[in-house]
Design a protein that fits this description.
The chain has 15 helices and 17 strands. The protein is an alpha/beta fold. A five-stranded parallel sheet has the order 15-14-13-16-17. Keywords: 4Fe-4S, Amino-acid biosynthesis, Branched-chain amino acid biosynthesis, Iron, Iron-sulfur, Leucine biosynthesis, Lyase, Metal-binding.
């Protein structure tokens, strides 16, 4: 019987053919907890009478949102989680490795066909590796820590077929922003977005992670990129696993099939205060910015920093009066950028380069905005108050647009630099 990728994953995991709409208890291959939501999950686990977690090897713990600890409660959370990891024999990456989603991917903890949960909404990022990955609440995570399984309603899927080739300085972030604008913030609620088509196949893993990462911004439960040779190269370089085919059947019962062509796509910008409030960069060009953030689980990879540095080119300095904060998404990405000379270029140009963490993305630690200030950010959310004051304005863009804007101190089309 024909099936979508999500249906195939749940069928394989449940040992019988399941279809969208069914509620199943499915095993969880890996569970990620971090410094913000982890402590509550551990407390729920205890309240459920949990003594030993179901399998410490399947639990991924790390700290990224408030690191190094920016308050005494944050430091206490870290201590609480470290004790739990020691007691349970869980490997804790602590605050050394970087942003959760980047770390799960680069440590090879996600692979095609797996079911992965995390107490973070952007857990859907691992769909770039062909996994069914979704964010869950801390209460559900308490259950997962104890039983290693969870109830899921197998989601319906929207097939997103992306054809064409990106123009110069236009890429994955522009595509996913335009999809958010088109589908809307709740247009894919509880569904899986299944990405396929030439533009996806030609996209590198960094770009695929950017796309899968933002599936939740359309309400999707998961965003799965159909695995291909690039997926398997990425996964097998990190773990011992035999490649297999995983694709949606052409006649599967998709809820919807959407077709896009990126050939003429302009750089996209999400304007305050919603991610689906998306316009061509030209519509907001000239908007003055106070702060620019290049980083996050959406766009903090080496490829993103390279894209920004390429736009920077031989320019001496970023514009006066704009604060440019650059944060590589992980230690590994940081080292790649460092060795390639990108960090030196950013620092020379006047950026503040911080150690891997979520940084200003959700205004949880540092880099907060004052009332009336304007930020352009390569992250994934621009909700009111997201990066500080509720009276601040947050725009979202690609790293190329962010770098071009940093050069002029105002939102700038990277194709014109
Ligand atoms: C803190 C965490 C629960 C939150 C999320 O779930 O996404 C954060 O990572 C975010 O991006 O808003
Ligand atoms: S970088 Fe931003 S979106 Fe990603 S996990 Fe951290 S706070 Fe959430």
């Amino acid at each position: 019987m024909s099936a979508t990728i999500a249906e195939k994953i749940f069928s394989q995991q449940c040992g019988r053919a399941v279809r969208a709409g069914e509620v199943v208890m499915a095993p969880v291959d890996a569970a990620m907890i971090h410094d913000i939501t982890g402590p509550l999950a551990v407390r729920v686990f205890r309240e459920m009478g949990g003594e030993r977690v179901y399998d410490p090897e399947r639990i991924i713990m790390l700290f990224d949102h408030q690191v190094p600890a920016d308050s005494i409660p944050a430091a206490e959370n870290h201590v609480f989680m470290r004790r739990f990891a020691d007691e349970q024999g869980i490997h804790n990456y602590d605050l050394l490795e970087g942003v959760c989603h980047q770390v799960v991917m680069e440590k090879g903890r996600a692979a095609p066909g797996e079911i992965i949960v995390g107490t973070d909404s952007h857990t859907c990022t691992y769909g770039a590796a062909g996994a069914f990955a979704t964010g869950i609440g801390s209460t559900d995570m308490g259950f997962v820590l104890k039983f290693g399984a969870l109830y899921f309603r197998v989601p319906e899927s929207i097939l997103v077929e992306v054809e064409g080739a990106f123009g110069r300085r236009v890429g994955a972030k522009d595509l996913i922003l335009s999809l958010a604008g088109d589908i809307g913030a709740d247009g894919a609620t509880y569904m899986a977005l299944e990405f396929t088509g030439r533009a996806m196949r030609e996209m590198n893993m960094a770009g695929r992670m950017t796309c899968a990462n933002m599936a939740i911004e359309m309400g999707a439960k998961a965003g799965i990129v159909q695995p291909d040779a690039a997926t398997w190269d990425y996964v097998t370089a990190r773990r011992d696993i035999e490649p297999f085919d995983l694709a949606g059947d052409p006649d599967a019962a998709y809820r919807e099939r959407r077709h896009y062509d990126v050939t003429d796509l302009a750089p996209q910008v999400a304007v305050p205060h919603n991610v689906d409030n998306v316009v061509d960069v030209g519509d907001v060009a000239g908007t003055k910015v106070d702060q620019i953030f290049i980083g996050s689980c959406t766009n903090g990879r080496y490829e993103d920093l390279f894209e920004a540095a390429e736009v920077l080119g031989n320019a001496d300095r970023f514009a006066d009066g704009v604060r440019v904060i650059v944060i590589p998404a992980s230690r590994t990405e940081y080292l790649k950028a460092l060795r390639a000379g990108l960090i030196e270029r950013f620092v020379e140009a006047g950026a503040l380069v911080e150690a891997p963490c979520c940084g200003p993305c959700m205004g949880g630690a540092f880099g907060l905005l004052a009332p009336g200030e304007v930020s352009l950010s390569t992250s994934n959310r621009n909700f009111r108050g997201r990066q500080g004051s509720a009276q601040a304005l947050v725009y979202l863009s690609s790293p190329a647009t962010a770098a071009a804007s940093a050069l002029y101190g105002e939102i700038t089309d990277p194709r014109e630099v």
